[in-house]
Specification:
It is a single chain. This protein has one domain. Helices cover 75% and strands 0% of the residues. It has 17 helices and no strands. Helix 15 packs across helix 17 (343-369).
């Protein structure tokens, strides 16, 4: 069954299978952090997941696709629609971010007051001036700016994964400008622009690695919002092309995306060229998202439409944004390792409670007030 929105329709139809895929990506990040924090031993799995970075790239591509699907006619020339869109995005993301900082507050306060040097260094990369750095990091977290500051003492305290919200808010701000520009070009021009942009992203990351000092290059290559913008744009472009192209054309584009991913991986492997593992996966993730969206409703995707899976998919953002403060708090209080792999079901349960008992009511309240 094709999932398309008729021209002029007020709202986009939900694609439940894509919602379900989100929980798989979020779990990849959680497992990577469970190992990184020393709670479980999964060295091989952690290496395959590359610390969860490919999952975040998947989120960025999916975000662009979903924004184009949900707001197929949004333009910066319609200020009323843009304000409504901005309120919706804020209400969707910010309350759970704020809750994650509240969860981190007891741990941050305890470590700062006791001047626990080892945990402050291990978890928050703080060597001195704890109070000043924690206050600065907290302010950056509240403003969703941590991804813009290439300093571990700003990025890691409180809630490390919140750097990705710096990217998301940046993408959302640009979306009303980007979507009409991409929409007005022909499919051939759009495909060429996506490919050229993908190559320029590689050049940008390579330039960072070559010219920026090592203690800053990692943040700019992995967390700086402009570095990831192209992934969001690929998602938008994929959504536009899915509406325009027939099944045969989309199949050819999908095979092309898989092909250039395999070619890029082979070239990087043979040349030992230093690029993030997630970089060549953008086309592959794009092909996967389009394939699932086009096949929405098909029998072979029925497992992704199960009620429990969809509920976890809706709660995946809560899982992603609160799991690190919970795990660090449990590590500081000495209970994390005793739970081990059982953190996975516990965190999934916590994400469901947070999403349905806090995030959704908060979103409805904010939108109602607006």
């Amino acid at each position: 069954m094709q999932v398309q929105v008729p021209p002029g329709s007020a709202a986009a139809r939900d694609i439940p299978e894509l919602t379900a895929l989100r929980v798989a990506a979020a779990l990849c990040v959680v497992v990577a952090h469970l190992h990184a924090l020393g709670i479980v031993s999964a060295e091989q799995l952690h290496r395959i997941l590359d610390g969860g970075r490919p999952a975040v790239t998947f989120f960025f591509v999916l975000s662009g696709f979903i924004m184009n699907h949900s707001y197929p006619h949004l333009s910066s020339g319609d200020p009323v629609a843009v304000r409504r869109y901005a309120r919706s995005r804020f209400a969707r993301l910010y309350p759970t971010l704020l809750l994650s900082l509240c969860i981190a507050l007891p741990t941050v306060t305890y470590l700062a007051m006791t001047r626990a040097r080892a945990p402050l260094l291990d978890f928050y990369a703080l060597k001195e001036h704890y109070s000043s750095w924690l206050l600065a990091s907290g302010a950056a977290q509240l403003l969703a700016l941590t991804g813009w500051v290439p300093a571990a003492a700003i990025n890691q305290p409180w809630n490390g994964p919140a750097w990705s919200l710096s990217c998301e808010f940046f993408f959302y701000a640009l979306f009303p400008l980007l979507r009409p520009v991409l929409q007005r070009h022909s499919s051939r021009v759009l495909i060429a622009a996506l490919l050229v942009g993908w190559l320029l992203q590689a050049c940008w990351i390579a330039a960072i690695e070559h010219f920026v000092p090592a203690n800053r290059a990692g943040f700019l290559a992995y967390q700086f919002p402009p570095t990831h913008l192209l992934e969001f744009i690929w998602g938008i472009g994929a959504g536009i092309l899915m509406r325009r192209c027939n099944v045969r054309q989309l199949r050819a584009l999908g095979l092309g995306c898989v092909g250039i991913t395999l070619l890029a991986v082979a070239i990087l492997h043979e040349t030992k060229f230093q690029l993030p593992v997630s970089y060549p996966l953008t086309p592959l993730f794009t092909a996967l998202i389009v394939a699932v969206a086009r096949a929405s409703g098909a029998g072979w995707l029925a497992p992704l439409r199960q009620r429990v899976v969809l509920a976890l998919g809706h709660a995946s953002y809560a899982l992603y944004i609160v799991h690190v403060p919970i795990l660090i708090g449990a590590s500081v209080w000495g209970i994390a390792n005793a739970v081990g792999w059982f953190w996975l079901p516990l965190l999934l349960l916590a994400s469901l409670l947070i999403h349905y008992r806090f995030a959704e009511p908060a979103r409805r309240y904010l939108l109602g007030r607006a």
